[in-house]
Amino acid sequence: MNVKFVTVLVVLAAMVTRTSETLFPGAFSCCTKISDEISKGILRRVERFEIQKAGGLCHLEAVILHVKGRKFCVNPWNRKVEKMMKKMKHKIHRSKSHVRKQRRTRRTREKEQKQ
Q: What number of other Cβ atoms are within 10 A of residue 65's Cβ?
């Protein structure tokens, strides 16, 4: 084959790949394999998680764990993972509502005492 022709094909292929990643970002971030086992050390260091549904662009149900810039795809029915998700949801929900309620009650008490 002609060297120029091959070079043009390689450049076009690279452009198409980058363009499709920009247009369809979800298609390239889907988990294709999931792990049934996950270590406690990784579960302790999870910063956030996402739930991948089996419909749409992704064809596999999974939980995506984010740990220091890395992603781990895990079986959503794993008991350790379910427990970790409940703790994280509870921790986030409780900390936000608890702090707001305390601050509001303190401020209203101070206002009542001044009057």
A: 23
CB distance 60 to 26 below 8 Å: no
Q: Which residue has the tokens 């120029």?
A: 4
| Extended beta strands in the chain, E state | 48-52, 62-67, 70-74
Partner residues linked to 55 by β-bridges: none
Cα–Cα distance measured from residue 92 to residue 103, given in angstroms and rounded to the nearest whole number: 17
**What pLDDT is attached to residue 17?**
53
pLDDT at 79: 93
C-alpha 75: how far from its chain's center?
14
Asked if residues 73 and 34 have their Cβ atoms less than 8 Å apart, the reply is: yes
pLDDT at 96: 47
Between strands 48-52 and 70-74, the pairing is unpaired
Mean pLDDT by 10 residues, the chain (115 residues): 68 58 57 91 92 88 93 94 87 50 63 72
